[in-house]
Amino acid sequence: MTKASNTSKASVPKVALILEDEADIRFIIESILTELGYFCINVPDIHSAIGIFKYNQISLMTIDILVPADTYEDEIIDNGLAFVRFAKKNGFNGKCICVSGFADMLSNDPMLKEFNYILGKPFTAEELTKAVSSEKSS
Questions:
Q1: Cα distance between the two ends of the chain
Q2: Tag placement on the chain: N or C end, fewer CB within 10 Å?
Q3: Are 18 and 42 spatial neighbours (Cβ–Cβ below 8 Å)?
Q4: Predicted structure pTM score
Q5: H runs (alpha helix) in the chain
């Protein structure tokens, strides 16, 4: 009698961190990303995002560039870009999408090279889906 081997492995869920201070925008992003197969954790501020980031394996982040500042271990994290830099310094190597009402003004800003994609508000489900699936910066 031979034992059947179970070669299937449990798939690791894709986890998205949504850092956005506007509740309705967080809900829209979460709805779209959930449809794309992500487990979403949405937070309204940098303080909450740091806590989530420390204890979860995040594969995608959507970040509002203008979220209010916070401090972590004497490091001032003064906006969404600073949070992305903090995350990358602490091991994040997933995709990062900037979501901003000022995207047209920011799209050529070399400081935003930390983001894989810059998405303007308002945006459509198709635009967010394109940003998630894109491989290049925009």
A1: 58
A2: N
A3: yes
A4: 0.84
A5: 23-35, 46-55, 80-89, 103-106, 125-133
Helices (H) and strands (E) in the chain, counts: 5, 7
Q: Give the CA angle between residues 35, 54, 17 to the nearest 5°.
A: 20
Phi, psi of 80 (to 5 degrees): -65, -40
Whole-angstrom distance, CA of residue 131 vs CA of residue 138: 8
Amino acid at 34: T
Asked whether 123 and 97 are in contact (CB, 8 A), the reply is no
Condensed to tens digits (0 to 9), the pLDDT of residues 19-64 reads 999 999 999 999 999 999 999 999 999 999 999 999 999 999 999 9
pLDDT at 2 over 60: no
Name the pairing type of β-strands 70-72 and 75-77: antiparallel
d(CA 118, CA 84): 13
Which pLDDT tens digit goes with each residue over 72-107?
A: 888 888 889 899 999 999 999 999 999 988 766 656
More confident call, 6 vs 46:
46
- Alpha carbon distance 20, 18 (integer Å): 6
DSSP β-bridge partners for residue 41: 17
